[in-house]
Structure formats: C-alpha cells, structure tokens
Amino acid sequence: MGHHYLLPDISRPGRIGCSLPRLDVPPSELPSEELLRQELNLPELSEVDVVRYFIALSKLNYGVDTGFYPLGSCTMKYNPRLHEDIAQLPGFASIHPYQPVESVQGALQLMFELQQYLAEITGMNATSLAPMAGAQGELASILLVKAYHHARGDRLRKKILVPDSSHGTNPATAAMCGFEVGTVSSNNEGNVDLNSLESMMNEEAAAVTLTIPNTLGLFDPQIAEISRLVHERGGLLCGDGANLNSLLGKAKFGDLGIDCVQVNLHKTFSTPHGGGGPGSGPICVKGNLAQFLPSPLVIKNDKEYTFTIPLKSIGRLGASYGNFGVMVKAYAYIRTLGAEGLKEVSENAVLNANYLKEKLKAYYHLPYDRTCMHEVVFSGKKQKAKGVKTLDIAKRLLDYGFHPPTIYFPLVVSEAIMTEPTETESKETLDAYIDAMKEIAREADENPEILHTAPHNTPVRRLDEVKAARQLDLRWRMGKHH
Amino acid sequence: MNPKEYKYTQEHEWICPEPGNKGKVGITDFAQSELGDVVYLDLPSPGTQVEQFKKMGEIESVKAVSDLFAPASGQVLEVNQAVIDEPGLVNHDPYGDGWLVRLELSNPSELDALMGSDKYDEFIAQLGEEDSE
User: Fold this and answer.
1) Which of A88, A368, A454, B125 is positioned for an S-S bond with A396, CB 3.0–4.6 A?
2) In terms of residue numbers, what domain contains A102?
3) Beta strand extents in chain B (DSSP E only)
4) Is A352 in the same domain as A276?
C-alpha cells in the first residue's frame, strides 16, 4: 500500500482537530493589522486525519524492531526494552544538567561507574563520556594526539596514518584537526601492509588510527608488531572502537597496544541509533593521556561524586556532559549482562557472521576467505560479470523484506556487500536471509532483469540517486507542489 | 573499447595528445563503471599548474569520492563546462563528451611513462584477476 499524500492534500476549509476550553480570562484586543501575519495556510484537519496520516507513515518504517538489519559496520542489534524503562526513571529523565551535584548523586554515580566499566572493557586507565557520537569520539582522540605531541614540544608531526580499508571518518577527522592524511596499504590477506607502514611511520607521523577488527571484519594478527613500530618511532596508536562488538571480554584494546580508543555506545552497548542519533562515543585512554581528556569527568571524593576538568584537557565537546540518556541505557546493558553475558555477546556475534559466511560463500565471491569477526564482506563480482551490480542485489533484498547490508564499502573490495548480522538474530532469521540471498544469486543467473528493476514490492521503486545527490531538497514549502 | 591513440595511467585517467603540445584528459570507461553514477566533479580552474601523477581534483559518485590525478604536467587551458553541469556525461561517454580538462603540456616526453591502449587493457584484466584470488 502506497502512501503518497501530504497533509495539505487532505486539508478541507473549516475542518478542525481541537476544541479550546471556554475563555476564563478577559479577552484582549488584537494588535493592529500591520503587525499581524498573513493567513498561515496551514492544513485544516480533524484529529483522526492526523492520527491516520502519521500511523500510516510509521508503518512504512523499517528498523531493528521490524526485521533483520544486517547493515555492516553499524551493529544494528536489538535494543532491549528494559533500557527504555530504566532511562525513563524520573531520577534520570527529569533532572537538569545544571542542578547542584549533591542533588544528582545517583546520576553521577552511574556516569562514574560507566567510566570505570568502559576502561575495564577496553583495558584503559581513564574514560571521558563527553563525546556525543562515534565521530566526535574520533575527533577527541585526534585532538588528544595533537595535545600530547605539543605538550612534549614536538610540533613536527603533521600526519595521521590510516589504512586504505578505513572508515571515511578516520581521514576526515584527521583533516578536521589540521593533519595531513597518509594512507597505508593493505596486503592481500586484508591486513596492514607492514612494509607500507614501515616506510610511512616516521618523525612526521603523529599517530596511526586502526579499526580493530578492521572494516573487512578481520582481526589483524600483526597488531603487536604494528604497536611496537608505531611506538618505537614516537607515534601514538589510536583505535577506532566501532567494531568492539566482536571483542567484549575477549581482547582489550589496551593489551593490544592501543593508546586511545572511542567506544560507540549506540552500537556495541545496544542503544537505539540510526536516523540521526542520538549517539555516544566515550573515549578511553592510557594513563599518560588522561590529563588531556575532554571535560568533564566524574570523580569520587570522600563524600560525593563531582565533576572535574583534567589538567590539560582539550576542553568541552558540547554544552553539558554528553548524551546522558544513552549512557543510562548502555549502563543498564552492561549491568544486565554482566561480564559473562558480554563475552557471550561477542561469541554469538562472531558465530553468526561466520555462519553467514560459510553458507553464502558458494554463491557470492568472498575476497578474504578467513575466519571473520562480527561481520563478513562479500563481493558481488560473480554477479557483476553477468551485468548485475551489487546495488541491484541490495535493492532486490528489499523485495524479500530485508534491510540490505552496507554496500560499496570498504572501498578496497569491489562491489562490496558488508554484512553484520549481530548476536541478537536467531538461526531461523539468518536462514531466511541466507535463502533470500541464494534466491537472488539464482535470479542473477536466470532472470537478471528482475534485479535491474528491483525493488518491486516497496512503496516507492528505484530511487534516482544522482538526482538525490545533486538536487537534494528536504524542505516542504507552502504552495510548492512536487 | 579504449581508444588506441590515447595514453592511460594506473589511476585510470586518459590523455588524448593534441597538436601543439596539448592534451585532453578524462577518466576511462573502466573507471566510470567502477565508480558508478557520477554526481559531482571538482576540477582545477583554467590557469592552474598541475603535476604528473599528483592530485588535480575530485570526482564524486553515488558510491564514493575519489581523487583525480594529472596524467601529465602542465597548465589547465580549459575545463569542460558541459560535464560540470551534467556529470552523467562521464558515465555515458567517458572518451568523448565526458572529457574533463584540456592541458598545455610542460613536458610532453612525460607521456612516454603512460600506458598505450593494449597495455592498459592488460592492466585492467590483471586487476580483475588479482581481485579474485
């Protein structure tokens, strides 16, 4: 069923959706004519019109609450409802950022303990919860790298090195902070090419940013060697914690030689995300970097919890303390699962990804045929040889009722299909997805046209992505009809 | 097919030598097919000095933003306004109407370092194989 009308389309003159209470104050005169606005021309609707309109729109939504959402690199796991209950407790939901700390000790205790839990999970010494997104956590990492080198009088390090498989935010963050970006090649196993790193890691390189496991869903077994090389040459090793969902309780960034890392609470710690947030990207660091952390941190003195600003802090990242509601949900997640439960999260996330890999690798090209971590990257090149692009495959998945995986990323894999099932999906769900992908592979052989013209069963058909990029128009204007 | 008279880089740009040490530059059919639909081009303005194999601009497709490299050193004489207005020309006619800039070559012998069409055909065939290992 389509939904192709807007509220002005069903407006009827004089129709009204509210009844005002009887006037119980003396009426006052309207201001003079020239101060009054023209007729506003808002849609005139009954309450039921409005309710049906928005309910119909909401039914077009697709999210983790409606179905499988294997969007690689995004960790679209199910978000337990318990978190919502906890976050809505009045002691958390009804407090103000600037009320006296002695009146919000419970909230501060939660932040303090979350700082400690994240430091423990990542193997670091200190945490700042201030960053309000993964990318802002990355920004904090790189600002901190700059502060670290400047504090020791080294102003020559102008480069941040990133692997060619890295997420676009890694080089973008480095550039935002005034660094040049050096791209380190990957070898044919999908790991860092040590020769490439060796040649680039010099006195101009401030840090290397590594996503662990990397964006191919692979764990780089050379990490100790990389860490030794980077540190020997005076650089810092930054982690991008976007893929922490595969490591919980299994490996700690600190033990792997990472100096600072951001943790995406909205991915690994199961808080709702997508559609613009809100996110939360706390940053965890080794002891020597703690003095540079973004403020504020929560500390505990003799009698109470309070806020503090680290000695050489890179400063604030926002007006208050980060996205507190997200912290509450992540805290609830950690406390609900406990240490053993968190380990199981990663075990099942990795198991699910490898199950998909083994079941589908006969049908889709697998560029790096090794045990993967929490996600698996296929290539659509077998299908491309028959004129079917990865985009067609993704669009066809919509017809089968699934959200498609991430496509065309990472860039080092042509026609990439990056699939992250997460631990919250059952074998039945995975099998249904596998069946759909097999069916699509068969269609690519036998009836490619059905893929070229997909999707067929959705409220709108294939969208014009070129037009969307060149003539993006997100604003509805009165009187302008599309 | 890749035109015989053009020269090609490993980054999939082509240059078509023209009389008077000039050359027209674009990206190859292979490049446009890998990129997908092109939506924006950031090209050097006329008068800009470009250096062989150094970045001279950017090309954005629905998939990603990629760097454009100069196939030879020289000065930008002209930018193809048609392709700025309608980047889809790069996809539809990469060797014709989809050209990007015209250069005045400062060192025409640099073209010897580029691949001819036969060698470029081999080069992209090889890329396909490596990828499938």
Assistant:
1) A454
2) 81-336
3) 7-8, 13-18, 22-27, 38-42, 49-50, 55-61, 65-69, 74-79, 101-105
4) no
**Structural domain includes residue B30:** yes
Among A266, A214, A257, residue whose Cα is nearest residue A238: A257
> Cβ separation of A470 and B39 shorter than 8 Å?
yes
pLDDT tens for residues A268-291?
A: 999 998 776 699 999 999 999 999
Q: Which of these three, A293, A310, A336, is where a domain ends?
A: A336
Cross-chain residue pair A188–B133, CB shorter than 8 Å: yes
* pLDDT value of position A393: 98
What angle is formed at CA A326 by the lines to CA A259 and CA A289, rounded to 5 degrees?
20
Strand ranges, E, within A225-357: 236-241, 260-263, 283-285, 297-300, 305-308
pLDDT at A327 over 60: yes
pLDDT digits (tens, 9 = 90+) for A132-144: 999 999 999 999 9
Choose among B37, B87, B131: nearest Cβ to A414: B131
Contacts of B30 (CB under 8 A, 6+ apart): B12, B124
Tell me which chain B residues have a C-beta less than 8 angstroms from the C-beta of A188.
130, 133
Same domain, A324 and A389: no
Let me know how long chain A is.
Answer: 482
Q: CATH number of the domain that A376 lies in? A: 3.90.1150.10
Locate the chain B residue with the closest alpha carbon to A415.
Answer: B34
> CB distance B60–A408 less than 8 Å?
no
Same domain, A262 and A375: no
How many structural domains are present in chain A?
2
| Structural domain harbouring B60 | 7-128
Percentage of residues of chain A with pLDDT beyond 90:
85
For the record, the structure tokens of A414 come out as 């042509």
Rounded-to-integer distance, Cα A71 and Cα A375, Å: 9
For A47-50, the CB contacts below 8 A with 24+ separation are A47/A17, A47/A18, A49/A7, A49/A10, A49/A15, A49/A17, A50/A7, A50/A17
Pairwise pLDDT comparison (A174 vs A32), residue with the higher score: A174
The reply to whether A243 and A190 lie within a common domain is: yes
A293 shares its domain with A421: no
CATH of the domain at A142: 3.40.640.10
CA distance B67 to chain A (A): 13
pLDDT confidence band for B132 (50 / 70 / 90): very low
Q: Establish if A188 touches chain B: CB-CB under 8 angstroms.
A: yes
Could you give the number of structural domains in chain B?
A: 1
- For the cut 80, the answer to whether the pLDDT of residue A104 exceeds it is yes
Q: What's chain B's average pLDDT?
A: 93
A19 pLDDT band (50/70/90 cuts)?
Answer: confident
Sign of the alpha-carbon dihedral angle for B37, B39, B43, B45? positive
- Do A240 and A126 belong together in one domain? yes
Q: Chain A neighbours among B 41-100 (CB < 8 Å)?
A: 60, 62-64, 87-88
Tens of pLDDT, residue by residue over A406-428, are: 999 998 898 999 999 999 999 99
In-domain check, residue B95: yes
| ipTM of this complex | 0.78
CATH number at residue B49: 2.40.50.100
